[in-house]
Amino acid sequence: MVAHSKVAVIGAGAVGASISYALMLKDVASEVLLVDVVPDIVKGQTLDLSDAACVSSTRPRVATPKEAGQADIIVITAGANQKEGESRVQLVDRNYKILQSVIGGMQPIRKDAIIILVANPVDVLTHIAQKLSGLPQRQVFGSGTYLDSTRLRSMLADTLNVNATSVHAYVLGEHGDSQFIAWNAASVAGKPLLSFPEVQQMDKEAARKTIAGKAYEIIKLKGATYYGIGACVADLCESVLFNKMQVRPLSVFVPNLGAVLSMPAKFGGNGIEEIYEIPLTKEEQDRLQASATTMKDIMAKY
Predict the structure, then answer these.
(1) What are the backbone dihedrals phi and psi of residue 133, each rounded to the nearest 5 degrees, phi first?
(2) Which three-class secondary structure string do you get for the chain?
(3) What is the mean pLDDT of residues 266-277?
(4) 175 carries an active-site annotation
(5) Neighbour count for residue 274 (Cβ, 10 Å)
(6) Lowest CB count within 10 Å: 48, 78, 228, 255, which one?
(7) Cβ-Cβ contacts under 8 Å for 292 (sequence gap 6 or more)
(8) pLDDT digits (tens, 9 = 90+) for 22-55
(9) 11, 12, 18, 23: CA torsion to nearest 10
(10) Terminal-residue alpha carbon distance, the chain
């Protein structure tokens, strides 16, 4: 645990509570500050989380937006829920005003704070948060395709009968319908993934659709997704607080593409340190460019 460290979670719904719970189990911060516009919800979640004190030294408590603005890390989950059949980009107008209110309520935000966007559509909202927060772009990033990439690695691990941590593969681009799998750069034990017969026989487009559509399937079955993203965001917070310099596919502003979308990024206590360009085929490069064009068209409105 980093002494006196504080992670603020804005939005105490299922996603915010799952992130808070994962943070407590990882025991990386001294305090988790929960903020929500519904007093009963945030009080209830905090009381429930406090019962996990038997396995954690992290203290959860209710906080104001102003207090959240002074935390080491500010995680923003607040936003309208994605409806069944609704694309992430259709959420933009509904969530823009929410984000505007959230960031406005936290001002002045601590100058060295890190803001992590989780609310969808995460790429567009990261772009908006970078503009509204007043912080350097490197200190404001989104969870991006980290969870999608985790789903991909799990699927490939099952196919190859190896542990998912041994699979190096990324889903890149928009966290949404135009995302793609960077097959050409994927590997296991330094061996190109495409050299494995099991992968060669795989329907690549079907795999992409399965990964991109998993959230929709979960929403259809149980109404929302939260455990996977909770674990992923807690991992991101740990990397920031301990300056671990991990590489994850995150929603970041990519200068040569002129848009915010997911690329492999090294990050730590100061935020994004470096964005990596990885070897892509012509088709994959075209998909990345198309994803960037889609994002730029949407972001131009904000």
Answers:
(1) -75, -30
(2) CEEEEEEEEECCCHHHHHHHHHHHHHCCEEEEEEECCCHHHHHHHHHHHHHHHHHCCCEEEECCHHHHCCCCEEEECCCCCCCCCCCHHHHHHHHHHHHHHHHHHHCCCCCCCEEEECCCCHHHHHHHHHHHHCCCHHHEEECCCHHHHHHHHHHHHHHHCCCHHHEECCEEECCCCCCEECHHHCEECCEEHHHCHHHHCCCHHHHHHHHHHHHHHHHHHHCCCCHHHHHHHHHHHHHHHCCCCEEEEEEEEECCCCEEEEEEEEEECCEEEEECCCCCCHHHHHHHHHHHHHHHHHHCCC
(3) 97
(4) yes
(5) 11
(6) 255
(7) 173, 254, 257, 258, 259, 261
(8) 999 999 999 999 999 999 999 999 999 999 989 9
(9) 80
(10) 38
| Active-site residue (options: 4, 127, 168, 175) | 175
Give the tokens for residue 149. 């990439």
Contacts of 206 (CB under 8 A, 6+ apart): none
A 10 A CB-CB count for 204 gives 13
Q: Which residue has the tokens 């017969």?
A: 197
| Residue 97 pLDDT exceeds 70 | yes
At residue 7, does pLDDT exceed 70? yes
- Give pLDDT, residue 82: 67
Please state, in angstroms and rounded to a whole number, the distance separating the CA atoms of residues 50 and 73: 20
